[in-house]
Amino acid sequence: MSLSMYTATVVPYRAMLKNLSAVMAKAEAHCEAKKIDPTVFLTSRLYPDMLPFTAQVQIATDNAKGAAARLAGVEIPKFEDDEKSFPELQARLDKTIAFLDTLTEAQFEGAEDRDIVLQLRDRKQEFKGATYLLQWANPNVYFHITTAYALLRHGGVEIGKKDYLSGGMTQAK
User: Fold this and answer.
1) pLDDT tens across 62-78, in order?
2) CATH class for domain 5-165?
């Protein structure tokens, strides 16, 4: 059995974004139970030169929807980066998952050889689809989800590896 580009992209991204949603719900409950202003978490950083929690979630969703759209050959949905609360970030996760749910396996046919061009701030990056997914998109999606998780865990939210994975990796739509 070969692994399709759809299965390597949409299925794990959906699962990880749902897991991030569940972890954020625990963070919000933690704030309520401990009488902590949610802004403490939303603006937290691992180090002063790193982006805050809110940006980590925004970038994780941007990378997930961007990678899936590029590989499927469809337009990338544009989201404004204006979320300032857990409910707003949850809505962003929901919109990203809803977009992923619109994609079909057929749209990913030939994606491993599709030309992917990213215009970065200072350079253009060119890939074939499989290289893009494995060496650029996946590392970026997982980096930002992991960083968001680490910020919450560092802040005292009672979450663990089980919450990060949640068994969702094996669930299809």
Assistant:
1) 999 999 999 999 999 99
2) mainly alpha
